[in-house]
Design a protein that fits this description.
heterodimer; A: 86 residues; mainly beta; 5-stranded antiparallel sheet; 1 helix; 45% strand; B: 92 residues; 2 helices; globular
Chain lengths: 86, 92
């Protein structure tokens, strides 16, 4: 059935309001609560932790993340958490 | 009122209006005029008063401080940042 097909961006839409793990093209990751996104997959995230290439963690209240360098989105995941085994 | 039919993920229903208000463009209008941190892909961070943003994420800041590796390196009155360099815009 056609309705059983889930478009990729519909999967992202299902994640609105919940935690999401964002892996960038570069060696950088973000995890936070997804508040919204647009057609470019620019994302608004809340209560964010940024993980840089050196393993440093930075807390950010609310950000607009540029979608240009996003590689992968993992719903519910946290780096090093149950869904993420690095 | 049947607003639950044939909806795309990009036209949220009225019940989701609080979520709609958190879409990227709404977030930008919320933080325009406020103090923000803009991080570039290079890792350099600019903190200042957000004057305006456009669809390319080109950004105009005032009273800007430039942080390299978390250390204040420069201060500028007015700054234009070309959008392709922007990693994120954060409210502070």
């Amino acid at each position: 059935m056609a309705t059983s097909q889930l478009l990729p961006l519909e999967l992202v839409d299902k994640c609105v309001g919940s935690r999401i793990w964002v892996v960038m093209k570069t060696d950088r990751e973000f995890s936070g609560t997804l508040l919204g996104f647009d057609d470019f997959v620019n994302m608004v995230l809340e209560d964010v932790t940024e993980y840089d290439n050196l393993g440093n963690q930075t807390h950010l209240e609310k950000i607009l993340l540029n979608g240009n360098n996003i590689c992968m989105l993992i719903p519910g995941g946290e780096p090093g958490g149950e869904a993420g085994t690095e | 009122m049947s607003n639950g039919t044939a909806e795309s993920p990009f036209s949220p229903s009225a019940e989701k209006s609080e979520i709609l208000s958190n879409n990227p463009s709404a977030f930008l209008s919320q933080i325009t005029g406020a103090k923000v941190a803009v991080k570039l892909n290079s890792g350099v961070e600019y903190r200042g008063d957000l004057q305006c943003v456009d669809g390319y994420m080109n950004i105009a800041l005032e009273q800007t401080e430039e942080y390299v590796d978390g250390v204040l390196k420069n201060q500028y009155g007015d700054v234009f940042i070309r959008g392709n360099n922007v990693l994120y815009i954060s409210s502070i």
